[in-house]
Amino acid sequence: MSIWVTGANGFIGRHLVRELAGGGHTVHGVGHGALDPADARALGLQAWINGEVDAANLNALAATHGLPSHVFHLAGGSSVGLSIERPFEDFSRTVASTARLLEWLRSFAPESRLIVVSSAAVYGADHAGPIPESAVLTPMSPYGHHKLMMEQLCQSYVRSFGIRCAVVRLFSVYGPNLRKQLLWDICSRLRSEQRTLNLGGSGAEIRDWTDVRDVVRLLARVAEVAWQDDFDVINGGSGRGVSVAGIAEGLIGHWGSKTAVQFSGVARLGDPISLLADNARVLEMNFDWRIPLERGLADYVAWFKGQARA
Length: 310
Description:
By secondary structure, the chain is of the alpha/beta class. 44% of the residues lie in helices and 21% in strands. The protein has 11 helices and 14 strands. Strands 3-2-1-4-5-7-11 form a 7-stranded parallel beta sheet, sandwiched between helices. Strands 6, 8, 10, 12 and 14 form a 5-stranded mixed beta sheet that branches. Strands 9-13 form a two-stranded parallel sheet. Strand 1 (2-6), helix 1 and strand 2 (26-31) form a beta-alpha-beta unit. Helix 5 packs parallel to helix 6 (142-161). The radius of gyration is 19 Å and the shape is globular. The chain starts with a strand and ends with a helix.
């Protein structure tokens, strides 16, 4: 397959490129970040364009490398907090980039299959237990609203113009090379040898934690399996929930620290109490989550300590 990845230089994007290239696919990318040709090839990219997901850059890829059989769309906002600080920027990165991509596909590559990476943030709050794809969508943050708008745009182009699209709603993705969010924050504090970690929220918040190395295997599987519908939505979660307090304790244990953890009890803006996937669709695909949480946390701590020494 000839595959394009938008946002290929991001955390999930880089892992996905390695997974696809390792499977023998030709992979090209567009998004933000300087990559010289040698770095791009080492990552697994045959071509890389540093720039917006727009007609000019997509046309340049097509002129040189032909049309894609599949497009993975990972470009967009990646932080609830930043979406609250700069909502229009998050809208532009997520919604506007998707609109430009869809319009290009409609005009030049309508036969390409589109796999769009969305977020469980579209579900919002008030969901107890595993959340099915059919659940009511009540996003709590600009980030979640913009991901939902992105999904709606895709569905519109499927219905009106015959684009084929699968949306994968990811939950709490972590793993080597993640340099933000909870795991990075905790390890950064452990490195500074703080005696007490003061974290927001109650610690009882439940999340569906998935290692990025498994997540990209799932994304690749979605591209490979037969599609029953032109528009489909799949929860990219394991169906196993662990509290934020459990994650903190696991990281502290693997670090070998005696640091104590305290929670403020104050809920963070845009932060639901529980986000846990109903993973029936993933099970139907005979997909197996290979990296248990304990191993994933141990690997993350080992990576963090290694990059800190580098």
